[in-house]
């Protein structure tokens, strides 16, 4: 009995002790669970906040300078068409870069809103360099507004009156042409115009463009004056839709269909573009103006600045030397007279002298590979192909497209290619790829009456051939040294003496002389 009571007392004491310990630890355990729960909740909140922040971050895209063709690695920003906050549409032009050959459009790869502009007009940029950045999104607001504006203009034109004022903008002027100079403004504020009536003319280095009214109405505002440089899409006037002299315009167009083209060609001659003045074609001063001994200053275009820079750089870098020779054109002229009709009938293109010189140059370049090579750092690069740059006449000057793989072309291929390039030059549709590259250049100053000259090498090429005018003069011919009159042409070869020795240069020019004087040598590959 006593032992049972002792056991019960021991069990009671143990139970009391366990209860006391539990009561002591319970507050700490509760707080620990609360802290753990709070910590877990805080972690979850941070994760959610991080995810929310990550999802709300806006993806930024960069617009970079695109590839500008072979041998062109940099250019000058001629205009930046967008600013921070502007909307852009996919493939919309956001900037323009001017090189020594053409003007390149920088386009947005996707739609969005501009967040940063990294280049300003006048900056020199290289391929791959950032021009601006924008946040990807719907964008295209400006393009949409322009579309709505054009639609409104057409609706107003159809109705003949009413509607918001219509903007008259510089139209597209063809590939690679992005700006021009206002040659003439043909209307004044308050004047009524008909739909599609010419209100201004813009002169580029290749063609003169007519700017036409999108609707009939009254001219409210003129935003550009003669001599101003304008870009594609820029506003030049504002027209309030309304009735216009449509019948008069149509009757004039019906009775005198050639009046507009004549006007378009005559106006620019009287007032040449101020962006690219040439000292050889100055505006003739009157006697009163001459008496004042005045001077006219015009800004040099970026294109002209770049050309001047490259030409001077060529003179400073190259060890240029020129060698001369003369060619008797009798045989090639006789061949052309005899076969020109048959050649035209079979190939659909006229036979000229340029094909003979291209083929003769291609043959000579294979015989003297150093003339077809270039210096690249401490190495000489020999090209196993012949790409010849040929000057083609355009309305406002010369362009130099490239004939590829001339070593595989025949006379018809050369003439056909030159004719195609000539048409593109007149239409202003030559692309930069068609003018990039070239391993050798032929310049024909004879079409302008040049008797002789020393052409400047076109970097990075190593030589250039200059053709000149054909002049009849007395020469000694035959074993008896008889003096006869022959059509003679002076030719000049300017070469880089760092790479081409005098022997190779003289041999090269002599090979061209022999091939042109006797075209049978080219057929027989002699």
Number of domains: 3
Radius of gyration: 38 Å
Low-confidence stretches: 28-57, 141-160, 248-282
N-C termini distance: 142 Å
The CATH superfamily title of the largest domain: Chloramphenicol acetyltransferase-like domain
Largest sheet, strands/sense/barrel: 6 strands, mixed
Number of DSSP-assigned strands: 26
What is the strand arrangement across the widest sheet? 17-26-25-24-20-23
**How does CATH name the architecture of the largest domain?**
2-Layer Sandwich
User: How much helix is in the residues?
Assistant: 25-40%
Assign the structural class, choosing from mainly alpha, mainly beta, alpha/beta, alpha+beta, or little secondary structure.
alpha+beta
Discrete helix count: 12
The CATH class name of the largest domain reads Alpha Beta
Strand content: 25-35%
Overall shape: it is extended
CATH topology of the largest domain: Chloramphenicol Acetyltransferase
Q: Please, what is the average pLDDT? A: 76
Structure description:
37% of the residues lie in helices and 27% in strands. It is of the alpha+beta class and 526 residues long. It folds into three domains: 62-136, Beta Barrel (OB fold (Dihydrolipoamide Acetyltransferase, E2P)); 158-270, RNA polymerase II/Efflux pump adaptor protein, barrel-sandwich hybrid domain (OB fold (Dihydrolipoamide Acetyltransferase, E2P), Beta Barrel); 318-524, 2-Layer Sandwich (Chloramphenicol Acetyltransferase), CATH 3.30.559. The chain has a six-stranded mixed sheet with strand order 17-26-25-24-20-23. The protein has a four-stranded antiparallel sheet with strand order 1-8-6-3. The longest helix is centred in the N-terminal third of the chain and has 55 residues, at 2-56. 30% of the residues are buried.
